[in-house]
Fold each of these.
Amino acid sequence: MMDDLDRRSLIKGMMALPVVHEIASAEIVEPTDKAKFAVIGLDHNHIFSITATMQRGGGELVSVYSKNAKGLADFHKRFGDVKVAASEDEILNDPSIQLVAGAGIPDQRAQLGIRVMKHGKDYLTDKPGIVSLEELAEVRKAIRETKRTFAIMYSERLEVKAAVKAGELVKAGAIGRVVQTVNLAPHQINQPGSDARPDWFWDTKHYGGILCDIGSHQADQFVFYTGSTVADVTASQVGNFNHHDKPNFQDFGDMMLHGNGGAGYVRVDWFTPNGLGVWGDGRLFLVGTEGYIELRKYIDVAGRKGGNHLMIVDQKQTRYMDCSEVALPFGPQFISDVVNRTHVAQDQEQALLATELVLKAQKKAIRLES
C-alpha cells in the first residue's frame, strides 16, 4: 500500500514534469474557387453554421426554400435579404446552382439529397444525413449513377480547430499509429434562453436514435483518425433514463467499434447540466503507438478559458496546444471539390462508412432498462 509520504512524492514528481505550452496555428486557407449554392431545409439551426462555412469557402448564396416560417425569418436575420424560392423545384431546376445545402428534419434529408444529385448538383447536409440502412443503399446507388457528391457536415471534426490540429498531428506521425479513439460527447437538451425543441426531436422515427444522430460525429472521427476503410460495430446500447414523458426519445447511448485501422469507443448523452456554461464537454482521446492526444473541444472544466484545448504526450515530452488560432480548411476545400470534382474536404466512402456504422449500431443496440 502507498503511504502519505509516497503519495506526496509521486504528486510532486508529476508536477515537476515539463509541459511545453504552444499556440498552434495553421496557414489561412483562402478560397480559390467560387460556386453558387442554395439552401433547402431550415429545421435545425446547424444550417446557419453550414451556410456561413460555404460562404467562407467561396460559395455564393443565391436562394433559399423552406416551409418553416420561423426558420426563414431567422435565416434572413443572419444572412440578409436572400431570395426565397417559390418551390424546391425552382432551385433544383436552376442550372446555375452547383450545390444545395440543407438541415431539414433528419428523416427527410436523404431523399432530398437523392433528388438534388439527380438534378446534377452536389449536396451538403447536416448530420444525421441518413436514418436507415435502406436509405443508405439508395444514396450509394444515386452516387454511382449521378457521379455527384452526398456530403455530411460532421462539424465536431471539420469545424473544430482542435480536431483539425489533431488530424495534422496524426498525419505527421506525432503519436505513431492511432490504435484507438475514445469519444465522450455529452449534449445539452436546451441551453438557458433557447427555444424549445421541435416535436420531431423527441421521436426516433424522425431523427434515427441517439447513436444515429449525435453518434455520427464520433463515428466520423473514429474512421478518420484510425484511417479505417472497413469497420463494424462490436457492441452498442441505448436508453431513456430521464425523459419518461417522451417514450420515443433516447438520452443515452454508447458503442464499441472496430476497423482495419483500429478500435473505437463512443459515449453520447443529453445530460449536460446548465452549470457547465457551454452545450457540452466534448472530449476526444487518440491513443497511438508512440503517444496520445486529448482534446477538450469546448471547455476546460475549472481550467483554461475558452475551447480548442489539445494535450499531447509523446516519448519526449508533454505539450499543451492552444488551437484557437488554427485555420478551418473545410469550406474552401469543399467549394473547390464542387468545382473540380474532387474529394479533398471529405472522402465520400469514409463519410458513408461512418453513417453505416451508426445505423448498424442503432439497429443492434441493447435497450437499457430505465
Amino acid sequence: MRIAALAGSVVAMGTPTFRLHHADRGLPATPVVVSVPHAGTLVPDEDAAVLAISGNALLRDADLHVDRLVDGVTRYGVVVVEALVSRYIVDINRAPDDVDREVCPEVQRPARPSARGLCWRTTTDGGQVLRRPLRLDEVNSRRARIHAPYHQALETLLEERRQRFGFAVLLDMHSMPSTGRAGHTDSGARRADIVPGDVRGVSCAPSLSALVGAHFNARGYTVRPNDPYMGGYITRQHGRPGRGVHAIQVEVNRDLYMDEERFTWLDEKAAPLRHAVLDLVGAACAWRPSA
C-alpha cells in the first residue's frame, strides 16, 4: 500500500495525485471509508519551479507514515483514499476558496488571510513555501488537478455506501507534532496521544465520537477531543449526519510511532498504535447510528 517514492520527488504532468486502495477481493463491503490526505510528499513538475523548499524540508509538515498506520485496513472491506501530493502544493483539508491575496493577488474574494490555506505560503515554522505569488490560473490548475478529484472520490464513495447501507462513515486520518509549534495555537504545549475532531459535535453522531475516544482510552492512550484540532474542511464538507454521512478526524501524536527529528518510522514503537488503529477501523465497521 505504501508509495515507493522519495520525499519531494518531482513527478511528471498527468501523474495521479491520489490513490485508491480497494477492499480486499471477495470481502463484503462496509459503510466505512478511510481518508489519508496529508501523508503525500510528491511535487508535480508543473508546480516545482514555484516551490521555495525541497528535500527534507518537505517532510516537516507532512503527516508522515500515516499510510503505514492504516496499511491493512482493506481486510475489513474498507476502501482508503490516499493523497500523494505534498500539502504545500495543495492542502486537501482546506476549502477551495481558502486563498489569500499574498498567495494570489488576483483572488477577488479571499476567504480570509491565511498563510496555510489551500496553497501554503509559509510552513508552521515560518519558512517560505513559495518563491513568488501564484497566478490565478496556477491556483485554478491546482484545484482542478489535486483538490477536486480527491473530494469527488470521497463524495462518490460515501454516497455509494449511504445508498447501500443507509449511512456511511468517514475516518479522516492525520498525525500531529507531539508539541505545538510556533505557528500553532498551542505553541509549546505537549499534546494528547489522540485528538478526535468532530467539529464539536457537528460532523458525526455523538456515539461515533464516543466510540473513538473510548477505543483509545481503553488501550491506555490519552484522548483530548477537538483540542487542538476540531476537524478541517474534509470533516466539515463531508460530515452530514442528518443525511446519514458521519465524518470524524483522528489525529495521532507522531511521538507514538516515529522519530520526529529524523522523520523515520519506528517499527517496534509503532506496533501498538498500528494495532489500535486497525482495531478502530474494525470497530467503526461494526458501528451503527442510533435509529
Amino acid sequence: MDREAAAGLAARSAAAPIPRVDVLGVGISAIDMSQAVAEIARCVEEGEQHYVCVTGVHGVMEAQRDVELLRAHNRSGLTTPDGMPMVWAGHWAGAKDMRRVYGPDLMLALCELAAERGWSSYFYGAADGVPERLAERLTKRFPGLKVVGCMSPPFRPLTLEEDGAVVQRINEARPDLLWVGLSTPKQEQWMAAHVDRLSATVLLGVGAAFDINAGLLPQAPRWMQRIGLEWLYRLLREPRRLWRRYLGNNPRFVVRILRRRPFLRSF
C-alpha cells in the first residue's frame, strides 16, 4: 500500500466510524488489510489509544459463553475478520468489500510501516524466549524496526503486584505498538482491562502470530487459507490440543449463523 492510499483511507476512517457486521453478537469490522493498517496508522499518528482484536470462529464462539469476552470484542477500536467464515458472514450481510485481516500478516504489514515511520514495538506474550526470537527475526526482515521490550508472562494469573510491575515495565518503554500474544480469550480480556493503564497507543491481540512469525509454527498453505480450511491444517498438526475447539465450535457456529443471519449495525 502506497502512502497516498494510506492517507486517503485514514482520512475516511477519521471522518466516519468503520462499520461492523454483527456475527452472533460480535461486531466484526467490515475492512480489508489496507484499511486496517491505515486505521491503526491514523491512531498511532494522532495518539488515539485503542486495542485491536483479531477474531475468527473460535473467538466468536467463546464470546457466546463469556460476556466479558463479548464486551471486549465490541469495545475494541477494531475487531478484524481473522478467518474466512468472518469474511463470508460479512459478504452475506452486504459488506462486499470485506477481506480477511489475518493476524500474522497484519503484524508483518504494520512492522514494515513501523520501520519506515519510526514507531516502536513491544512484544508481550507467548512462551519464554519466543518474543525475543520474534523481535530478532522481524528486525532482520525490516531494518530500522525499533523494539523497546519483550516479555513472556507466566501462564498462571498474575498477582496484583506482578501485574502492576508489568504495567510499569511496559510504560517505561513507551511503545507505540504493544503486541499481545496470550491467546483467546485471555488476550482480549487483558487488553480491555489494561488499555487505560498503559501508555502504548495501540494494543494488538494477535495470538499465534508470535509463534508463526518467530518461525516456530508453520502456516497452512495459502490455498487452504483462501477456502477456509486453515482450521483443518491446524487440527491435523495438533489434534490433541485443538480437536475440542474445532470439532465443537465449528459445527455450532454453522448452526447458529443459519439461525441468526449476520447484519450491519453500530456498536
